[in-house]
Protein backbone atom coordinates (compact mmCIF):
# COMPACT_ATOMS: atom_id res chain seq x y z
CA UNK A 1 0.00 0.00 0.00
CA UNK A 2 1.33 3.43 -0.93
CA UNK A 3 2.35 5.71 1.93
CA UNK A 4 1.40 9.32 1.25
CA UNK A 5 4.05 12.01 1.65
CA UNK A 6 3.54 15.39 3.25
CA UNK A 7 5.81 18.38 3.85
CA UNK A 8 6.35 19.80 7.35
CA UNK A 9 9.50 21.33 8.85
CA UNK A 10 8.55 20.12 12.33
CA UNK A 11 9.51 16.52 11.54
CA UNK A 12 13.18 17.43 12.05
CA UNK A 13 12.50 18.91 15.49
CA UNK A 14 12.94 17.19 18.85
CA UNK A 15 9.22 16.68 19.56
CA UNK A 16 7.82 13.23 18.85
CA UNK A 17 4.31 14.66 18.45
CA UNK A 18 3.62 17.69 16.26
CA UNK A 19 0.98 19.31 14.06
CA UNK A 20 1.14 19.28 10.28
CA UNK A 21 0.82 22.76 8.73
CA UNK A 22 -2.75 23.78 7.91
CA UNK A 23 -2.46 23.64 4.10
CA UNK A 24 -0.83 20.21 4.20
CA UNK A 25 -3.31 18.98 6.81
CA UNK A 26 -6.17 20.07 4.56
CA UNK A 27 -4.81 17.87 1.79
CA UNK A 28 -4.51 14.85 4.09
CA UNK A 29 -7.97 15.32 5.60
CA UNK A 30 -10.07 16.62 2.69
CA UNK A 31 -8.38 15.25 -0.42
CA UNK A 32 -6.87 11.98 0.75
CA UNK A 33 -9.44 11.37 3.53
CA UNK A 34 -6.88 9.78 5.82
CA UNK A 35 -7.94 8.59 9.26
CA UNK A 36 -6.41 8.28 12.70
CA UNK A 37 -3.75 5.53 12.91
CA UNK A 38 -2.90 5.91 9.21
CA UNK A 39 0.82 6.22 8.46
CA UNK A 40 2.26 9.08 6.41
CA UNK A 41 5.80 10.00 5.42
CA UNK A 42 6.72 13.51 6.50
CA UNK A 43 9.73 15.36 5.05
CA UNK A 44 11.22 18.71 6.03
CA UNK A 45 12.55 19.89 2.67
CA UNK A 46 16.16 19.75 3.89
CA UNK A 47 16.86 16.03 3.65
CA UNK A 48 15.11 14.60 6.71
CA UNK A 49 12.01 12.38 6.61
CA UNK A 50 10.18 10.03 8.97
CA UNK A 51 7.16 7.76 9.02
CA UNK A 52 4.51 9.22 11.31
CA UNK A 53 1.18 7.97 12.64
CA UNK A 54 -1.87 10.21 12.59
CA UNK A 55 -3.10 10.45 16.18
CA UNK A 56 -5.62 13.29 16.02
CA UNK A 57 -7.69 15.03 13.37
CA UNK A 58 -9.59 18.31 13.51
CA UNK A 59 -11.19 20.51 10.87
CA UNK A 60 -7.92 22.34 10.22
CA UNK A 61 -5.05 20.32 11.60
CA UNK A 62 -3.63 16.83 11.55
CA UNK A 63 -1.54 15.82 14.57
CA UNK A 64 1.01 13.06 14.11
CA UNK A 65 3.53 11.07 16.14
CA UNK A 66 6.84 9.81 14.83
CA UNK A 67 6.59 6.07 14.24
CA UNK A 68 10.26 5.45 13.54
CA UNK A 69 13.70 6.99 13.50
CA UNK A 70 14.22 9.90 11.06
CA UNK A 71 16.00 9.11 7.80
CA UNK A 72 18.70 11.44 6.51
CA UNK A 73 19.12 11.88 2.75
CA UNK A 74 22.56 13.04 1.62
CA UNK A 75 22.64 16.46 0.01
CA UNK A 76 23.71 16.43 -3.66
CA UNK A 77 27.40 17.11 -4.23
CA UNK A 78 26.81 19.03 -7.44
CA UNK A 79 24.18 21.72 -7.74
CA UNK A 80 22.18 22.56 -10.85
CA UNK A 81 20.93 26.16 -10.80
CA UNK A 82 18.38 27.43 -13.32
CA UNK A 83 18.35 31.18 -13.99
CA UNK A 84 15.01 31.55 -15.71
CA UNK A 85 12.83 34.49 -16.77
CA UNK A 86 9.37 35.32 -15.53
CA UNK A 87 7.07 34.36 -18.42
CA UNK A 88 3.33 33.82 -18.87
CA UNK A 89 1.77 32.16 -15.83
CA UNK A 90 0.72 28.76 -17.18
CA UNK A 91 3.99 28.28 -19.07
CA UNK A 92 6.00 29.43 -16.07
CA UNK A 93 4.22 27.05 -13.68
CA UNK A 94 4.70 24.15 -16.13
CA UNK A 95 8.40 24.99 -16.38
CA UNK A 96 8.86 25.04 -12.58
CA UNK A 97 7.03 21.75 -12.21
CA UNK A 98 9.10 19.90 -14.80
CA UNK A 99 12.43 21.40 -13.72
CA UNK A 100 11.73 20.31 -10.13
CA UNK A 101 10.89 16.79 -11.30
CA UNK A 102 14.16 16.64 -13.26
CA UNK A 103 16.09 17.67 -10.16
CA UNK A 104 17.04 21.35 -10.42
CA UNK A 105 18.43 22.32 -7.01
CA UNK A 106 18.07 26.09 -7.15
CA UNK A 107 15.94 28.58 -9.05
CA UNK A 108 16.84 32.21 -9.65
CA UNK A 109 13.95 34.04 -11.30
CA UNK A 110 14.63 37.30 -13.09
CA UNK A 111 12.59 39.96 -14.86
CA UNK A 112 13.80 39.97 -18.49
CA UNK A 113 14.24 43.16 -20.47
CA UNK A 114 11.87 41.86 -23.18
CA UNK A 115 9.18 40.78 -20.75
CA UNK A 116 5.66 40.29 -22.09
CA UNK A 117 3.65 43.33 -20.97
CA UNK A 118 0.80 41.16 -19.71
CA UNK A 119 3.34 39.54 -17.37
CA UNK A 120 5.08 42.79 -16.36
CA UNK A 121 1.90 43.98 -14.61
CA UNK A 122 1.68 40.90 -12.39
CA UNK A 123 2.49 40.77 -8.68
CA UNK A 124 5.79 38.89 -8.53
CA UNK A 125 5.35 37.98 -4.87
CA UNK A 126 2.37 35.89 -5.95
CA UNK A 127 4.55 34.18 -8.56
CA UNK A 128 7.08 33.21 -5.87
CA UNK A 129 4.39 31.94 -3.52
CA UNK A 130 2.80 29.80 -6.23
CA UNK A 131 6.21 28.45 -7.28
CA UNK A 132 6.91 27.33 -3.71
CA UNK A 133 3.57 25.51 -3.63
CA UNK A 134 4.33 23.76 -6.95
CA UNK A 135 7.77 22.71 -5.73
CA UNK A 136 6.36 21.19 -2.53
CA UNK A 137 3.74 19.21 -4.46
CA UNK A 138 6.33 17.90 -6.92
CA UNK A 139 8.74 16.86 -4.15
CA UNK A 140 5.90 15.07 -2.38
CA UNK A 141 5.21 13.07 -5.52
CA UNK A 142 8.75 12.33 -6.72
CA UNK A 143 10.35 11.42 -3.40
CA UNK A 144 12.89 14.25 -3.23
CA UNK A 145 13.41 15.35 0.39
CA UNK A 146 15.24 18.55 -0.60
CA UNK A 147 13.13 21.51 -1.71
CA UNK A 148 14.92 23.58 -4.36
CA UNK A 149 15.88 27.08 -3.23
CA UNK A 150 14.11 30.05 -4.80
CA UNK A 151 15.48 33.56 -5.32
CA UNK A 152 13.97 36.43 -7.30
CA UNK A 153 16.04 39.23 -8.85
CA UNK A 154 15.03 42.40 -10.67
CA UNK A 155 17.12 41.67 -13.76
CA UNK A 156 19.55 39.21 -15.33
CA UNK A 157 22.63 41.00 -14.01
CA UNK A 158 21.50 40.65 -10.40
CA UNK A 159 20.64 36.98 -11.01
CA UNK A 160 24.08 36.15 -12.41
CA UNK A 161 25.78 37.96 -9.51
CA UNK A 162 24.18 35.43 -7.12
CA UNK A 163 26.16 32.52 -8.55
CA UNK A 164 29.13 30.95 -6.80
CA UNK A 165 32.58 31.36 -8.31
CA UNK A 166 32.85 27.59 -8.76
CA UNK A 167 29.80 27.42 -11.01
CA UNK A 168 30.16 26.65 -14.71
CA UNK A 169 27.62 28.88 -16.46
CA UNK A 170 25.96 28.15 -19.80
CA UNK A 171 23.46 30.35 -21.60
CA UNK A 172 21.23 29.02 -24.36
CA UNK A 173 20.24 31.14 -27.34
CA UNK A 174 19.20 30.53 -30.94
CA UNK A 175 21.91 32.97 -32.07
CA UNK A 176 24.75 30.89 -30.58
CA UNK A 177 27.18 29.14 -32.94
CA UNK A 178 28.41 26.22 -30.83
CA UNK A 179 26.23 23.23 -29.99
CA UNK A 180 25.85 22.30 -26.33
CA UNK A 181 27.68 19.07 -25.53
CA UNK A 182 27.11 17.58 -22.08
CA UNK A 183 30.57 16.02 -22.15
CA UNK A 184 32.18 19.46 -21.90
CA UNK A 185 30.86 19.73 -18.35
CA UNK A 186 33.45 19.51 -15.59
CA UNK A 187 33.51 16.43 -13.39
CA UNK A 188 33.27 18.24 -10.04
CA UNK A 189 31.78 21.68 -10.56
CA UNK A 190 28.20 22.74 -10.13
CA UNK A 191 26.38 24.02 -13.21
CA UNK A 192 24.17 27.05 -13.81
CA UNK A 193 22.03 27.52 -16.90
CA UNK A 194 20.63 30.80 -18.20
CA UNK A 195 17.66 30.99 -20.56
CA UNK A 196 15.63 33.85 -21.99
CA UNK A 197 11.93 34.72 -22.38
CA UNK A 198 9.58 34.26 -25.34
CA UNK A 199 11.14 37.20 -27.21
CA UNK A 200 14.72 36.17 -26.44
CA UNK A 201 17.53 38.06 -24.72
CA UNK A 202 17.83 41.81 -25.24
CA UNK A 203 21.01 43.30 -26.73
CA UNK A 204 22.00 44.48 -23.25
CA UNK A 205 21.50 41.01 -21.78
CA UNK A 206 23.52 39.42 -24.58
CA UNK A 207 26.33 41.90 -23.92
CA UNK A 208 26.18 41.05 -20.21
CA UNK A 209 26.46 37.33 -21.00
CA UNK A 210 29.47 38.06 -23.19
CA UNK A 211 31.16 40.25 -20.57
CA UNK A 212 30.69 37.60 -17.86
CA UNK A 213 32.42 34.98 -20.04
CA UNK A 214 29.36 32.77 -19.90
CA UNK A 215 29.49 29.92 -22.40
CA UNK A 216 26.86 30.61 -25.04
CA UNK A 217 25.43 27.47 -26.61
CA UNK A 218 22.92 26.31 -29.21
CA UNK A 219 20.48 23.49 -28.40
CA UNK A 220 19.53 22.47 -31.92
CA UNK A 221 17.87 23.52 -35.14
CA UNK A 222 14.37 23.57 -33.70
CA UNK A 223 13.50 26.81 -31.93
CA UNK A 224 12.44 25.81 -28.42
CA UNK A 225 9.81 27.61 -26.40
CA UNK A 226 10.92 29.65 -23.38
CA UNK A 227 9.67 26.95 -21.00
CA UNK A 228 11.08 24.05 -23.05
CA UNK A 229 14.72 25.16 -23.41
CA UNK A 230 15.64 24.95 -19.69
CA UNK A 231 13.82 21.61 -19.36
CA UNK A 232 15.79 20.15 -22.26
CA UNK A 233 19.14 21.50 -21.04
CA UNK A 234 18.51 20.42 -17.45
CA UNK A 235 17.67 16.88 -18.57
CA UNK A 236 21.02 16.59 -20.37
CA UNK A 237 22.95 17.96 -17.40
CA UNK A 238 21.25 15.82 -14.76
CA UNK A 239 21.81 12.74 -16.92
CA UNK A 240 25.50 13.65 -17.01
CA UNK A 241 25.60 14.19 -13.21
CA UNK A 242 24.13 10.73 -12.58
CA UNK A 243 26.64 9.05 -14.88
CA UNK A 244 29.47 10.54 -12.85
CA UNK A 245 28.06 10.11 -9.38
Short summary:
This protein has 7 helices and 12 strands.
Quick tags:
6-stranded parallel beta sheet, 6-stranded mixed beta sheet, Alpha/beta knot, 32% helix, alpha/beta, 2 domains, elongated, 245 residues, Ribosomal Protein L25, Chain P
What does this structure look like?
With 245 residues, the chain is of the alpha/beta class. It is 32% helix and 23% strand. The protein is built from seven helices and twelve strands. The chain has helices spanning 22-31, 89-102, 117-120, 124-142, 156-161, 203-211, 228-244, and strands at 5-7, 17-20, 39-43, 48-57, 62-66, 71-72, 80-85, 106-110, 149-153, 168-172, 191-194, 215-217. Strands 1, 2, 3, 4, 5 and 6 form a six-stranded mixed β-sheet that branches. The protein has a six-stranded parallel β-sheet with strand order 9-8-7-11-10-12. It is elongated.
- Globally, the shape reads elongated
Mean of all residue-level pLDDT scores: 91
The count of domains is 2
CATH architecture of the largest domain: 3-Layer(aba) Sandwich
Number of strands: 12
How big is the Rg?
20 Å
Helix content: 25-40%
The share of residues in extended strands comes to: 15-25%
CATH class of the largest domain: Alpha Beta
DSSP summary: helix tally: 7
